[in-house]
Amino acid sequence: MKVSRVSGALGGSVSQLDVSAALADGSINVIRELLNEHEVLFLRDQSLSPTEQRDLARLFGPLQTHPAYGIVDNIPEVMLLESTPQNPSKIEVWHSDMTFRQHPPSVTVLRGITIPEVGGDTLFASMTSAYDSLSEGMKRYLEPLIAVHDFSHGFKESLAEPGGRERLKTALAENPPVRHRVIQTHPETGKKVIFVNALFTAHIEGLSPLESSEVLRFLYQHCVLPEHTCRFSWEENSLVLWDNRSTQHKPVNDFLPARRALHRAVSEGDQPY
User: Fold this and answer.
1) Would you please indicate which residues are annotated as catalytic (active-site) residues?
2) Does pTM surpass 0.85?
3) Lowest CB count within 10 Å: 71, 155, 228, 232, which one?
């Protein structure tokens, strides 16, 4: 196995590793150490079955389902993320997955199934790097703050569609707003990370609406400065694992009218952190 760094902030490109074989013989456990080091891992030519993808994600904890996505091969833990001209992706902002839950995912495992010839890259940003580059004064200011994360904030476009609120009625009921500290400590590396995102963070408690929006606006811009990021171009059977506790990501929806389909599995994290 060979691992090469993708950027200064995050990302490891892993080659000469057959994930299916490593799952079978138990040697796949090394992937956890690599993920703690690089925060996001990129692998090519990995022909995993949905069951194997589920088992890979399970290495990092119990698996989660998602209230708004379809599933693959009747496996609830493997979700289908599909974007077509008739049903294009509505998620176009930087985010961490499912922070509207009390226990957001720890690790996301995503595999490319149908990839457009041009476009459809994914951007990643290190919230560890973003925290480290804050001034000491800003770190002290942010340390005690608590933010509210809300499913309805992240899915407001879907909720606004005709019948959308009825379609997502159960998801709304099962996912009330939750509170997470703005600054978290990663449970495995012990490093500090910024834990707000433009998709699901509604506001910061205890601040006026103006102050909350301005603090969040600064953090959203700061977190995705180029020096904190890397970019991945998908191919069929590409496999990407990222640490949802210390990264954000953003899909680039520049491939329509082509179709893109991905399979996703996520492992549940602790209550942050």
Assistant:
1) 95, 97, 249, 264
2) yes
3) 71
